[in-house]
Amino acid sequence: MRILVLGKEQAFLDLIQLSSSIKWLRADDFTSFDNDEIADAYFNLLDNAALESYSNKKKPIFINSVSYTLIECNHSENVIRFNGWNGFIKRELWEMSGKINHAHEEVLNTLGKKYVNLPDEPGFISPRVISMIVNEAFFAKQENISTEEEIDIAMKLGTNYPKGPFEWEKEIGTKNIYFLLNTLSQIDPRYKPSNLLESKAGEK
After folding, report:
1. Which of 9, 50, 48 is nearest to 26 (CA)?
2. Does residue 168 contact residue 148 with C-beta atoms inside 8 Å?
3. Three-state secondary-structure class, residue 154
4. Residues 62, 148: one domain?
5. Per residue of the chain (204 residues), what is the pLDDT tens digit?
6. What is the C-alpha separation between 44 and 119, in angstroms, rounded?
7. Structure letter (DSSP) for residue 54
8. Range of the domain at 185
9. CA geometry: angle at 151 spanning 140 and 88, to 5°?
10. Could you give the number of structural domains in the chain?
11. Are residues 180 and 101 in the same domain?
């Protein structure tokens, strides 16, 4: 099986480590990714993956799209969105949305991945939860309750989380977390980003 990947270095390395039986190919940009005709499946791991068009491809396509849905981007049935945020590719269970068929499952089986198929809505489950935790940590810092380092230590020791909220924020990316929270807040005000998070994301 040949899989072509478009993505940043760390995301690419995280993906190719999942299987040595696959012939991994890497695209330099979306044009070369889009023009390829020899791969058996495709992964676009860039943050803006959902905004591209894949209408000329019929083989399985997996796109990193936490905030944008398949419906709003009008993607065809061979396109599956999944949580490809930094750190999540390594997880045993992938959160996905779309019409997963036998060809998609063959790719996932080769990668050794289990999956849960969720409704085509922004955020999946894990990104929503982690983004809310990060947001609450920013509220705490904003109110001078504690420092980033102390909050991270408290969360890891108190809840046995593998990372603290600010460690997650740095790994995932401030803009990714802010954009998801801002998208979700249009439906539910509980997701409204803190002013400090908004400012750090460069949106204020």
Report:
1. 9
2. no
3. helix
4. no
5. 999 999 999 999 999 999 999 999 999 999 999 999 999 999 999 988 999 999 888 999 999 999 999 999 999 999 999 999 999 999 999 999 999 999 999 999 999 999 999 999 999 999 999 999 999 999 999 999 999 999 999 999 988 888 999 999 999 999 999 999 999 999 999 999 999 999 999 876
6. 20
7. -
8. 126-200
9. 105
10. 2
11. no
Bridge partners for 42 per DSSP: 4, 61
Rounded to whole angstroms, the Cα distance separating 52 from 59 reads 16
pLDDT computed for residue 123 by the predictor: 95
The DSSP string of 97-153 is ES---HHHHHHHHHHT-EEEE--S-TTTTHHHHHHHHHHHHHHHHHTTS--HHHHHH
Q: What angle do CA 136, 182, 178 make, to 5 degrees?
A: 60
Element (DSSP H or E) covering residue 173: none
Among the three residues 117, 139, 161, which one is the final residue of a domain in this structure? Answer: 117
Model-wide pTM > 0.90: yes
Helix (H) or strand (E) segment spanning residue 93: strand 93-97
Integer distance in angstroms from the first to the last C-alpha of the chain?
Answer: 46
- β-strand partners of 152: none
